[in-house]
């Protein structure tokens, strides 16, 4: 059955891969903030694979941006089956000794507030969907401690807790799960990790490799399809963190 799916941050990296991976026969809302041309390329790929694409811009680190995205989605569809809260980022590497209030706000609004508020806004659309479910993108940085990404890790750790609370509150209608990726080679690391750091990450992994976006997209599809899963975070990190 055809699904209507909103993926935030679908212009590049993991979100873009998810959009194309899930495209066939589905309607995909491709959200972006600054990367308009890449978002349009993703839309073309979605259509090529037999999906229907809608491209919407919004800065999700603001309340107004989240409301803009929701309003524009709701003007096109009367329901959502899946919300993938994927938009996010490190913002800047820092140490606890050197953080500022402004950096704390930037990291938390982008990663934590946007996911929580988009979830809140989309509930009425999801309630009209079929087996509606939400997938939040957290991070191995929330699990293991990640020096120079401590604020980022904690902003994702809050989402781990939010996922479980929302899963209980929104059951039995809406399922809520999360994925905690390890190092996945996307523009994220082009911005925030040197090639040397990428090599350090690779060597620290028991599998001796970093991941690619498809490792996450397959898990998103699994969470969409498995209607007995809620409140869970799936770790996909090459064994860097084991429970
Ligand atoms: N790559 C990794 O190793 C890794 C590991 C753990 C978790 N993650 C998480 O996975 C998610 C996707 O990351 P990625 O690796 O695919 O990175 P990416 O390629 O940099 O993608 C980030 C996405 O977030 C969007 N975004 C950034 N700032 C935004 C803002 N203010 N408002 C709205 N959207 C914004 C970007 O949109 P524009 O480019 O259009 O501005 C882009 O589509 C993020 O939540 C990240 O924290 C990544």
Secondary structure elements and pairings:
Blueprint: E1 4-7, H1 13-21, E2 27-32, H2 36-48, E3 52-57, H3 63-74, E4 82-85, H4 101-127, E5 133-137, H5 141-144, H6 150-170, E6 175-181, H7 187-192, H8 195-204, H9 213-225, E7 233-236
Parallel strand pairs: 1-2, 1-4, 2-3, 4-5, 5-6, 6-7
The protein binds NADP nicotinamide-adenine-dinucleotide phosphate.
Description of the molecule:
There is one protein chain. It is built from nine helices and seven strands. It is α/β, with parallel strands linked by helices. It has a single domain (4-236), classed as Rossmann fold, CATH 3.40.50. A seven-stranded parallel sheet has the order 3-2-1-4-5-6-7, with helices on both faces. Helix 1 links the parallel strand 1 and strand 2. Helix 3 (63-74) runs parallel beside helix 4. The chain is globular. The termini are far apart. The chain binds NADP nicotinamide-adenine-dinucleotide phosphate. Residues 9, 11-15, 32-35, 59-61, 86-89, 110, 137, 139, 181, 183-184, 186-189 line the site of NADP nicotinamide-adenine-dinucleotide phosphate (NAP).
Strand content: 5-15%
SSE string: EHEHEHEHEHHEHHHE
Write down the CATH class: Alpha Beta
Distance between the termini: 35 Å
Give the quaternary arrangement of the chains.
single chain
| Unreliable stretches covering 5 or more consecutive residues | none
Sheet with the most strands, sense and barrel status? 7 strands, parallel
What integer value in Å does the Rg equal? 17 Å
Helix content: 40-55%
Reported by name, the CATH topology is: Rossmann fold
């Amino acid at each position: 059955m055809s699904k209507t799916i909103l993926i935030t941050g679908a212009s590049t990296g993991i979100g873009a891969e998810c959009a194309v991976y899930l495209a066939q026969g589905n309607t995909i809302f491709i959200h972006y903030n600054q990367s308009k041309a890449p978002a349009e390329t993703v839309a073309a790929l979605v259509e090529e694979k037999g999906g229907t694409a809608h491209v919407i811009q919004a800065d999700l680190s603001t309340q107004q941006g989240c409301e803009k995205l929701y309003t524009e989605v709701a003007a096109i569809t009367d329901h959502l089956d899946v919300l993938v809260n994927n938009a996010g980022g490190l913002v800047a590497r820092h140490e606890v000794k050197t953080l500022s209030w402004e950096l704390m706000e930037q990291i938390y609004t982008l990663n934590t507030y946007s996911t929580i508020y988009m979830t809140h806004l989309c509930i009425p659309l999801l309630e009209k969907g079929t087996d509606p479910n939400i997938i939040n993108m957290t991070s191995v940085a929330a699990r293991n401690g990640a020096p120079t990404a401590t604020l980022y890790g904690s902003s994702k750790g809050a989402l781990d807790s939010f996922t479980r609370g929302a899963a209980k509150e929104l059951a039995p209608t809406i399922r809520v799960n999360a994925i905690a990726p390890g190092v996945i080679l996307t523009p994220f690391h082009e911005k925030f990790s040197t090639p040397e750091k990428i090599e350090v990450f690779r060597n620290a992994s028991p599998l001796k490799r970093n991941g690619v976006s498809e490792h996450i997209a397959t898990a998103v599809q699994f969470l969409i399809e498995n209607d007995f899963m809620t409140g869970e975070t799936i770790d996909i990190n090459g064994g860097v963190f084991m429970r």
